[in-house]
Structures are given as C-alpha cells and as structure tokens.
Predict the structure.
Amino acid sequence: MSIQQAYNDWSDTYDTDENLTRDLDRAVMLQMLGKMNCNAVLEVGCGTGKNTALLAKLGERVTAVDFSPGMLAQAKAKISSPNVTFQVADITQPWPMPAAAFDLLTFNLILEHIEGLEFVMEQASRTLKVGGLLLISELHPFRQYLGGQARFTREDSTTLIPAFTHHISDFLTAAAGSGLTLTALNEWWHEADEGKPPRLITFLFQK
Ligand SMILES: C[S@@+](CC[C@H](N)C(=O)[O-])C[C@H]1O[C@@H](n2cnc3c(N)ncnc32)[C@H](O)[C@@H]1O
C-alpha cells in the first residue's frame, strides 16, 4: 500500500486511535513553540491538523500542506482559522512555495516517510527567510532501530506504513548541506516510556 493511500485509510481514526507518539509530539510542540510569535509559518505534512491550531495562534499566516486528501479533509473540518491555508503537495516534488517566504517551518512525524533528506532540506532552506527557523520532530532513530514505525490497526489487521530510517547524522548532514545551522537538539520521552529509549527527537535549525 502506498504511503498516501495508507494515510487516506488511517485519516478517520488518526486523532482518536491510541498513539503515544502523536500525543507526545503535540506536548513537545506546545513546550517548544507555545511562547513564540512570528509572521509566516509553513507546516509540512500537517495531517489532520493536530498542530495547526497552535501554529495558527503563534503565526500571522499559516500554510499547511499534505499529500493525503483524507488527512487534509480532517484538518479542514477541524480548523476554521482564517489565517490558515491548506494546500495539497507531495514534498518529494519541487515545492510550489516561493523562496524566502517563511519565518518558521515545521516537520512533525513526516520525515520517516521520505527516503532521502537532502531534497526536502534544500526545499525547506529555500523557502525560509534568512534567520528563519526549521523545527523537526520525528520518531527517534533509536526507536526505528527497534522496529518502531508509523502503523495503524483495523480490527485484527495492522498496516505498517512504509518508512525509512534516518540516523541523527543524516539529519545533521542534510541540514548543514542546505545552509542550516543547528541551534538545539533534544530527546523526549512519554511518561509511559520509563526505562525505554527516547521516543522523539527534535532539531531546531536556523537559516
Ligand atoms: C504521522 S502523520 C503526521 C501528521 C501531523 N504532522 C502530526 O504530527 O500529527 C504524517 C503525515 O505526512 C504526510 N506525508 C507523508 N509523506 C508525504 C509527502 N511525500 N508529501 C506530503 N505529505 C506527506 C501524510 O499524508 C501524513 O498526513
């Protein structure tokens, strides 16, 4: 099953299925961005809009993109803020956004589905203003080494969504190659994760 089809299928229960990674990501976003204010935000892989409401509060304008019509339909049903524009785009193809347009760009739980990071990092850097921030929040590679990957269950059948392992050095190398400077790297655990490797890793880069 393609990644796009899998997310279309998952979209109607993505928000309500038990999913500690999704819940932790939401809490991490609030902690990292809750006090920020900025002008233009690009949310890449917005899914059902779990983080879009927060971004719409801190940004003057938000462009939220995803390639799954099912996920976007859920987001549109939930987010009515007039400063949010939803757009269908496959981020493995040249991005339709203009250069130097955004102050903040976010990737949350999407990059495991992207085989190579170089192209999307280049596009992210191109669309950021000088001084703009790129926040990445992804399933920690330690979890990927142990078999962790996006999945959902329907009755007795579990669908594993195609995923690629990115080592920490892959993120750092691709970002540096696109002119982005690391300003913070953090690791995050859900309260249910005691004794386990970190669940999420976040990188904050600046152009
Ligand atoms: C696990 S969901 C995360 C959604 C949201 N960011 C969140 O944190 O809840 C991953 C999202 O990435 C989107 N996605 C995956 N590959 C993509 C691609 N090549 N282009 C655009 N969106 C993509 C999927 O459709 C899905 O909505």
Observations:
- The mean pLDDT is 97.
- The chain has one domain: 3-206.
- The CA atoms of residues 76 and 86 lie 8 Å apart.
- Residues 3, 7, 22, 25, 45-47, 50-51, 66-68, 71, 90-92, 108-110, 113, 150 surround S-adenosylmethionine (CB under 6 Å).
